[in-house]
Amino acid sequence: MTTQDTQPGAQPGTELSTDAPALAFPPGFVWGAATSAYQIEGATDSDGRGRSIWDTFVGEPGRVVNGDHADLAVDHYHRYRDDVALMAELGLTAYRFSVSWPRIMPEGSGRVNQAGLDFYRRLVDELLGRGIEPYLTLYHWDLPQVLEDAGGWPERDTAARFADFTTCVHEALGDRVRHWTTVNEPWCAAFVGYASGEHAPGRREPAAAVRAAHHLNLAHGLATQAIRARDPQARIGGSVNLYAVTPATGAPADLDAARRVDGLQNRFFLDALLKGSYPEDVVADLAGVTGFDFVRDGDMEVVSTPFDMLMVNYYSRYTVSGSAEGSSSASAAPTGAGSPWPGSEHVTFVRSGRPVTSMGWEIDEFGLYEVLQRVALGYPAIPLVVSENGAAFDDVVSGGVVDDRERVAYLYAHLRACHAAIAAGIPLRGYFAWSLMDNFEWAWGYGKRFGLVHVDYDTLRRTPKASARWYSRAIRRGGLRGPAE
């Protein structure tokens, strides 16, 4: 295999003329796609479901673009059988989805809504019947509103309630679900939910956001222990959204900005989950925001309870500046939002000249290789899974077809990075494209499409895009030939 074939970011080489892949992935590599409950299910007032913080958030004027909401979303709650059939048609070997906490425990704890559990029983049975492995995520941001009313994630009790919820879900599904992810992207839940206020619950309280981050980490550890106590054979994952972080220049202020952002985005969670401690420099950065007296004796041992796979979500690279000259650069937060960087509000995010998605996120597949390598070399050995990776583009439907070549190129480049990581000895076990289908994209509403499958929001008709067909061919080949193959 040539250097060009194995280096992420390289231009595609000459592709094979046969159906065999030019870049073959190992046998057993997991090929999946991912969604989350609130973004696709709809049925927010059906069958005993309670209210979540997102139900409240979308009802507040100005929170979501165009005032969009997820009452219907893409109606996966009623169309799940057709959606699973579509997954099977595409050849997915695994499907990552989340369960709705308020659908299962409407009051956040205590009473269990069996109708909600029954929905997930049916979904899991449908997946298994089609030969698709369920990868279940327990928390993807839809906290029951009643728990937020009691203080939300800044309150320690929320982590205890999450452990109870975990036990409930495992009791119902543990006989059929082998792969479990605890908390999806705790950075977003803490700092975008409680510091910048861009996500539910929309609070702008930096000190509360830091407490929330710790309690989300604690919830991961408690959930891990709860599952392990019931099933020692379960495969448990912790989830982090990682970014490669680059200083805009070699100036000391920019180098410090990169250290700060890397610390709060990446190391705060990686060090906690895999080393059992918070980085000293990050704690120092946050000294003007909050003390760490909310971290009790024994907490970090719980947070770092051994688990089986690190779920890595990757979308882009950050290039950052800490100098006054960087103030004219684009901020990561939209106008009117607070900063999601407590203690480092002065840091700005600058363009590096790379192509961008319709989200304005720079496309940098080498960053995926970089973060995987960083975990493999800098932390205790653990299998890795790319649990989210994808891009939003301004898809156009023409003649019933969506020729999303930009997304095909994006997937191809990032899967090449995955292949290069495996070739370098990094223990990467699987890849989940984000997202299976277009859906409610949080505060962006329905204006940003990440899906492999196009959804007509008027009719809810599903149409596989060119990217879905390309990904399907890659799965069936067990590897890559080229972006046009």
Q: Which secondary structure elements does this structure contain, and how are they paired or packed?
A:
Blueprint lengths: L2 H4 L16 E2 L5 E5 L2 H4 L12 H6 L17 H15 L3 E5 L2 H4 L9 H16 L3 E7 L5 H5 L6 H18 L5 E5 L2 H9 L11 H25 L4 E7 L2 E4 L4 H24 L4 H6 L13 H5 L5 E5 L3 E5 L26 E2 L15 H14 L5 E5 L8 E2 L2 E2 L2 H19 L4 E7 L18 E3 L6 E3 L1 H12 L1 E2 L5
Parallel strand pairs: 2-3, 2-14, 3-4, 4-5, 5-6, 6-8, 7-9, 8-11, 11-14
Antiparallel strand pairs: 1-17, 9-10, 12-13, 15-16
Helix pairs in contact: 4-6, 8-10, 9-10, 14-15, 15-16
Structural notes for this entry:
By secondary structure, this protein is an alpha/beta fold. It has one domain: Glycosidases (TIM Barrel). The protein has helices at residues 3-6, 37-40, 53-58, 76-90, 101-104, 114-129, 145-149, 156-173, 186-194, 206-230, 252-275, 280-285, 299-303, 365-378, 405-423, 466-477; strands at residues 23-24, 30-34, 94-98, 133-139, 179-183, 235-241, 244-247, 309-313, 317-321, 348-349, 384-388, 397-398, 401-402, 428-434, 453-455, 462-464, 479-480. A hairpin with a 2-residue loop joins β12 (397-398) and β13. The radius of gyration is 21 Å and the shape is globular.
